[in-house]
Amino acid sequence: MRISYLSGSYFPSRQANSIHVVQMAAAMRAVGHDVVLYGRRVDGESCDPDHLCDYYGVPRGLNIECLPKRASPYGRELQYAYQLRGILRATTPDLIFSRHYFASAFCAGLAPFIYEAHAMPLGFSTQLTRFLLRQRNLRAVIVISEALARDYQSAFSLDAPLVVEPDAVTPKNYEAIKPVDLERKSALRIGYCGHLYEGRGIELILKIAEERPHFDFHIIGGEPRDIQRYTSGPNRSDNVVFHGFVAPGEIPRYLAAMDVLIAPYQRRIEVYGGQDTSRWFSPMKLFEYMDAGKAIVISDHAVLHEVLEHGSTALMVDPEDATQWCRALDQLADDTSFRDSLGERARNLVRERYTWQGRAERIVRMFAETGESGI
């Protein structure tokens, strides 16, 4: 089947949305479909498909088309959607799969389409989404959590199926991955991977590090200006290492070097653009942690119970209580058997239920069962 995958992502990018769409497009290709992933070019960066595949850590051969970015922000989304409409009119795909609501609305009449949402729309995008969901060619809406599905059902009238598909991971052969070399190998190595945005809990990590100087904390990711903000103060802890940005394809080497992986999401979780997604989020980081087979300590958000079970696949603690976090880390430091079993159960779960390939297979199979795909 010929699939046109519409994203609003810029390539190459450090944003989670770009990683998500590349992984999904690669998974659709892996299960036998002809996929073209559309996005936008980052000024001054190479958009060679093989270079992008290496950067994102997926097999070469994925067709990624980068459209030029409009210089002025005014009308940028409109122009991008108009460009995509022209391309799709000429290429006539069997299925349009889209994470970009503007492009979806422009291209909805060209072929059957599936729309994927990761948050509730805001402002004008609410009206555009309402228009989009009324289109006859809409075959399904994919959302990343049961909580988001409930909010969509409450806000919109839907004729097409509403399907919950959390984020996922491509399982790695960790036995063949060489971990990065870290100092102080005798210390418990605790890893955080991700952005340093507000709500990610970096301040909490620094507080815990002060309380537990015999543990080492490794923070992988972040923009230089954010790292500078956390490292320029007089109270910087010697047991906190900021590694800076690491390309997605290299992340497993860092996860492999850790004993424990943490995700101290705060009550409010902002994504790029400032929207709070704590009610619905399905962080890719969680599934990458699970695949690494390391014990996980994560904030106790209701939506995360859709995937995790406290004491079985992770330790889930109060997002703002440093004492609880210290106790959880102490427990894992003292009980290596429990630490290992926690990681093993999480790995088994993610490889059984939450892989990109499985996600792609389910979505495409659902479309094929409508009898319209021609496969």
| Poorly predicted runs of 5 or more residues | none
Strand content: 15-25%
Mean pLDDT across the residues is 92
Q: What would you call the structural class?
A: alpha/beta
Q: Which CATH-level-2 architecture of the largest domain?
A: 3-Layer(aba) Sandwich
Determine the CATH topology of the largest domain.
Rossmann fold
Neighbour order of strands in the largest sheet:
3-2-1-4-5-6-7
Radius of gyration: 21 Å
Provide the helix percentage: 25-40%
Total number of beta strands = 13
Count structural domains: 2
What is the first-to-last residue Cα distance?
6 Å
Form type: globular
Main β-sheet description: 7 strands, parallel
Order of helices and strands: EHEHEHEHEHEHEEHEHEHEHEEHHH
Q: What is the fourth-level CATH superfamily of the largest domain?
A: Glycogen Phosphorylase B
- Provide a count of the helices: 13
Instruction: Report the top-level CATH class of the largest domain.
Output: Alpha Beta
Q: Overview of this structure, please?
A:
With 375 residues, the protein is an alpha/beta fold. The protein is 38% helix and 19% strand. The strands form two sheets. Strands 3-2-1-4-5-6-7 form a seven-stranded parallel sheet, with helices on both faces. A six-stranded parallel sheet has the order 10-9-8-11-12-13, sandwiched between helices. Strand 11, helix 10 and strand 12 form a beta-alpha-beta unit. It is globular.
